[in-house]
Amino acid sequence: MAQKLPYKSLVQLDRNASAALYVQVCNAFIALITKGILQPSDMLPSSRTLAELIGVNRNTIKLAYEELVSQGWAEAVERKGIFVNSKLPTAASRPLPDAHLGPHEAFVWHNRFRNALPSKDLQKAGLAIDDGFPDVRLAPIDHLMREYRSLSRKFYGKNFLRYGSSAGSERLRISITNYLSNTRGLTVSPENVLITKGSQMGIYLAAHLLLGAGDTIATGISNYLLADETFREAGGNILRIPVDACGMDIDYLEKALATTSIKAVYIIPHHHLPTTVTLSSERRLKLLDLAKTHRFAIIEDDYDFDFHYDNKPYLPLASIDHNQNVIYIGSISKTFAPALRIGFMVGSTEFVRAAASLRELIDRQGDTLMEEAFSVMFDNGEVDRHFRKSLKIYKERRDLFCDILASDFEEEISFNVPEGGLGIWTTFSPDINLHKMSHEAGRKGLYIDDGDFYKNESYATNALRMGFASLNEAEILKALKTLKEVLPNAR
Amino acid sequence: MAQKLPYKSLVQLDRNASAALYVQVCNAFIALITKGILQPSDMLPSSRTLAELIGVNRNTIKLAYEELVSQGWAEAVERKGIFVNSKLPTAASRPLPDAHLGPHEAFVWHNRFRNALPSKDLQKAGLAIDDGFPDVRLAPIDHLMREYRSLSRKFYGKNFLRYGSSAGSERLRISITNYLSNTRGLTVSPENVLITKGSQMGIYLAAHLLLGAGDTIATGISNYLLADETFREAGGNILRIPVDACGMDIDYLEKALATTSIKAVYIIPHHHLPTTVTLSSERRLKLLDLAKTHRFAIIEDDYDFDFHYDNKPYLPLASIDHNQNVIYIGSISKTFAPALRIGFMVGSTEFVRAAASLRELIDRQGDTLMEEAFSVMFDNGEVDRHFRKSLKIYKERRDLFCDILASDFEEEISFNVPEGGLGIWTTFSPDINLHKMSHEAGRKGLYIDDGDFYKNESYATNALRMGFASLNEAEILKALKTLKEVLPNAR
């Protein structure tokens, strides 16, 4: 009989919780009903009995019972009492798990991400030789906060908190067109620009619009891992193209096109990831001609454009393409701070409109207040000032980092000084075990990668990228000193 | 001969642009080369000649030529001059488009979003009867800004600008578990929580993990349009289930399961969108039992939980499910401000880990600084205070709005007073043309929907949702007065 249940232990109340006591009692009874401990038509204890048992005011119990009745879990029968709703389906007594949710679920699905590498979380890393990330301490976060505050206080600013366009803030799209024109000679209209959450969302959108199941996309034999995974997730097959000191081997691509039809090429012409090489002028023109002839798209990932230390940067493919084959992707996150997710994607009006429709299904829209704030900072020159300032600092850091690598790691590490970007591609002598190195460095308080992120099914080398930009002079000295100490234990 | 080209008009300089003059000259020549106007081995004019022609200092031209040579576009032949690189592929002279990018692109792709409804942009709407959105003027944006500022000034706060976990801020995941436990009796661990960009991203992630091409998902015959589109985009087929005053017809679903195998049910048990009905207790238990027997997932979209005016809200399915069949989705954007994109998804550890892997491909991670700021506001009670305050205000607005609908629109509109949520499902008499009404209202400065958003291939009615929450008393009076004036012209 339900009345003999040990309610004192079954109905546990937490007097410090923010939920009212009567709600806690009500929820406890719903749990007893849904677990099958109380069955349809079982009588509940009288409010007086229960109130005494669990030590609360009788009115609390009455309120709880009223709530159970109004929600349909219980029914009041006049002069008899309160009963579990007789119309509820009879529930077999269910086992009560210790924690509510365990590691596994009961429904059928195919987890194709079971073997995915966990994403790198550097927020608690301390001293870290990262993949080539910016120094967040240089980001003009005070200026950003000032614009946030200013916008959020204005009457019109409040409107930016409402639903907006899934293509992004109109004002930022205009600012970006000006910025692209001034820095890259790329003349487009705001309708050709979609504001994204970092360059990754640009890759994702382009991949899902271009690729269907079984479609082929060409990428470098070494390539940015998250791009490859995105293309596979979209259903694509990957055609690997060799990469040498002049970038992707476009002659190889041309030969492959004789037998293989492709939907797109994904390329980082400016500084190939991971090896940092730049695509030569000849290959640029040849790639554009192939795209025109074979009618494939070029996804040009140019997240690195703003960091170039010696020459002026090459113009992007998008700036010299006159046939609308290039989808151009850039990032502001990479130049400001990774956790401020802002980027852009440039394409034909139709392609951008389709990308905005897909983006609406993903997260509806971006954070308009942040987008507006960045627009102000583009327009008042703050973005430009930040680029110039950090470029100067990063060049000094690159030089210092490379000098030490050359002098102190001559036997262990070979590398080329990168013309731009925030990382150095370092190849280790074969007797050094990068997993061991990463582990040993971690024990001494230094985060450094184990190189797995740069390998894929057709590319393996004893190498990794070393980011120099996020470390100041003292930190570079300390990090490389630690690395040097660790290497003998990594053989 | 290249030397006879009209360089004065071909090399146009903008002295107000932020790009240096030599960069502009360099880019102009790259454009001439890539368009085929200058061919491989063509000689460039001497720096003296060109400097005079276009009226700049000769050193500017020299710098530009050096840049062209260093990038591989040109080559210097001693004692002869500067030539276009002879190794460049010969480019056929290409037509120069007026604007760089037009509406269409040259590559082959299938635009499955061509007929997508454009997303609603309410940021410039002025007076609007929306779909049921919060009043952004009530959002405690000053508090949010204060937490932002405070975090961004702290040494440890800067670390939140670095790359973090794609599952979201650990601290916010803990705050959300406490909030779910206190408000919904839902006891989970932070490993069961993924921070999303609003509830839409939860729907997107769940759909793409659960559905493959040709898989079936059951939804209400009337349903949230963006959810349906997301399921189709993921490759799913939609099985429509009738919805009555007690919510989705679970008996109908049970019969359908005899012949159709499904991967998931998408349901908004609390206030069905668009019609605002609540799923009854009997149907809740029956649905959970069916999920257990047939091993399908329940995607429970509970974006509306925090707004309930009469009873306490029903516990979510997730709180009474003891078989791990429910993926629970919620939103903070809907309670604070749509453009602040924060939501959460709750599931088994394995499902959440896979969702985090997929999310990494989409946008890498969320805005950690915002996530941390919201965590502070959950923990110090600010979120709770905002819920209570806005709930009181929204109840008053609902009552006023419904009173006027009942008294002034008796002949034109039928509706039920919603128990919760921010919108009223209003059915118009058949002689009123909603497109005409929307158009006529727009002419009088009132935004109101035309009802298309609520129709689908198997559901059409002369109805729409009217949001009461985003309008204050004076605005409600004004909006409904305008609507009343407009209706005679909409027949």
Automatic annotation (TrEMBL), chains A, B:
Keywords: Aminotransferase, DNA-binding, Pyridoxal phosphate, Transcription, Transcription regulation, Transferase
GO terms for MF: DNA binding; DNA-binding transcription factor activity; pyridoxal phosphate binding; transaminase activity
Record carries keyword Transcription: yes
A Pfam family it matches: Aminotran_1_2
DNA-binding recorded as keyword: yes
Domain HTH gntR-type, chain residue ranges per copy: 19-87
PROSITE patterns the record matches: HTH_GNTR
Lineage top rank: taxon: Bacteria
Family per similarity comment: In the C-terminal section; belongs to the class-I pyridoxal-phosphate-dependent aminotransferase family.
Stated name of the protein: GntR family transcriptional regulator / MocR family aminotransferase
UniProt source species: Dyadobacter soli
